[in-house]
Amino acid sequence: MKKFGIVLTTCLLISGIQCKAAYLGDIPQKTMQIAREAGYNNSQYNEIPNSKTVRVGIGTNNFASYEWKEASLYGTGDFELYNNKTYIGTYTVGDQININMVGNIFVLTDKDTKVIAKVSGPIIFKSDFGFIGIKDLKRAGKDAVYRNQIELISTTKGGSFYIVNSLGLEEYLRGVVPNEMPVSFGLEALKAQAVAARNYVLSPRVKANPNYDVVDSVASQVYFGANTEKELSNQAVMETSGIVALYGWDLILAQYSSTAGGYTESYQNAFSDPITKKFPAPEKPFLKGVPDNPSTPRLDNEEEAYEFYTSKPKSFDEDSSYYRWTREWNGQEIQDAIQANIAAQSATGFVHPAVEKGETIGIVKKLHVLKRGVSGKIMKLEIQTTDKDYVVEKELVIRRLLKKDGKALPSANVVFEHEYNDDGDLIYIKASGGGFGHGVGLSQYGAGYMAKKLHLTYDKILKHYYTNITLGTEPFILSANPSQNSITQNFWSPNGKGLLIIDNKYKVANIDISVNGVEEIIDLDTSGRYNTLDLSNCLHKGLNTVNFKYPQSQSKNKGLRIFIEMVDD
User: Fold this and answer.
1) What is the DSSP letter of 58?
2) Same domain, 60 and 81
3) Are residues 31 and 73 in the same domain?
4) Which of 266, 270, 566 is nearest to 441 (CA)?
């Protein structure tokens, strides 16, 4: 890191020790280069949620629907019941509230079917002494119970309602991490998963529904509530609390999948643009394909891909049962699979020419790969038939087209071998592949291997899978605006080290800061845009609380962007 004219600013006394924040003058150069390349703009930044409350849509059993016709809720301790903000009553363990709807009216009855209320809602269940449970709903084989607050909100068409669990971000993650990653993968892998999951829910996104942010299934992140929490995964959430993965000033889209197969894929080669639906998507520089072994060549040609996926080189993913796999079809089976699935996959817009439901394709002659990504993932596949040739794009579409026994291919990191009879008819295809899922970003099995066998810490794991990232607190804007003039960040530091990064574009002279309860006014350097201050002498190993206040003496038309970057040992 380049240092510019070091100035020391006294940060008062903490536990009798002189605590000094070293003013380093300018932001680390790599961070700023990335920020410039990322093309930061204000409107994009302001989409990042300021609220640390997560609203989760709860699905029925097997996630068949997110619209409920009826439900029965109970508390594991005392709970309060409200119609919107109007108090209905307090109930205790053993009490059960049954809910159904007549039009847009909620009808609430007790366990003896006595009517408690007929109201328009939303209905709110709150508990400070236990959890709220949904009768007969199971998650991971256990009764589904939830922290904090459950809301029942009428759908617009009436006669049904949504069930929404509203709770704090860190509490939400307790119900996500052990359901997205086995706790047997170890603490550091679970920490990496916690950061990726935190990024996922905080990153700007289109809400799953106007009434909630995410759902509780794989359509968002798997969230199974309080009954599935584990001690080790709770520790992982706590020991990464407040920490996110950043590229420049922006939270990254922290994609992850089960098993990459030894080589992750670049984002644009696996996904379409979420807005335009064009494939390949625009590149995301922090989601670049990386091999587990740096000497592995690019696999975007048939020879290298075949060599890699028909062998088992040493890999972080080698403990996964999906590290390598095969699928086989005879000629009739591959014909039936493609014919059965091509119309549905054509509806995605990624089959050319399009195939309508009921339309018959010619006899399949060959699966011909037209384009691969850096990991060997198929981006474009040609289905050659006696009638015409069909070009299929995008890994998920390809996987769902080439089903075996009703199941999609585990991944599109796959090579094919064909056999023909003497008449030239296709009689057999063998697919040899590696990985499970889209293979972009963090590989969960890879993270487990790196944590348990290589003894790598979570930051090293994340920086392998996400290119040129930093780890730090969520960036925010500090200004005279009432919603931005006092910001508190709570975060865990494993080593008590951190850098305060400030974008002082508008030349604010100073800010008020409190580090773990010790207050100080910090004068800022207005000669340059970016300020970096070393807070390491002021931070604790473990949980830290830092409060920032915009001074009343400063111009109301100014503001700063700020985050705290974690520092390696």
Assistant:
1) P
2) yes
3) no
4) 266
Distance of alpha carbon 92 from alpha carbon 131, whole angstroms: 11
Residue 521 is part of which domain span? Answer: 7-48+475-566
CB under 8 Å to 75, separation ≥6 — which residues?
91, 92, 93, 95, 125, 127, 130, 131, 132, 133
Phi then psi dihedrals of residue 299, to 5 deg = -110, 25
Our count of domains for the chain comes to: 3
**What's the CATH code of the domain at 114?**
2.60.200
Residue 284, in any domain of the structure: no
* Structure tokens given for 436: 């499970």
pLDDT digits (tens, 9 = 90+) for 401-413: 999 999 999 999 9
User: Helix or strand or coil: residue 79?
Assistant: strand
pLDDT digit string, tens, across residues 440-495: 999 999 999 999 999 999 999 999 999 999 999 999 999 999 999 999 999 999 99
Instruction: For residue 326, give the 3-state DSSP assignment.
Output: strand
Q: 85 with 159, same domain? A: yes
* 177 within some domain: no
Cα distances (angstroms) measured from residue 178 to each of 76, 109, 173, 199, 230: 22, 35, 9, 16, 7
Distance CA 465, CA 411 (A): 18
In a domain, residue 400? The reply is yes
83 and 39 in one domain? no
pTM, two decimals, is 0.89
Residue length of the chain: 569
Rounded to 10 deg, the angle between the 444-452 and 187-202 helix axes is: 140
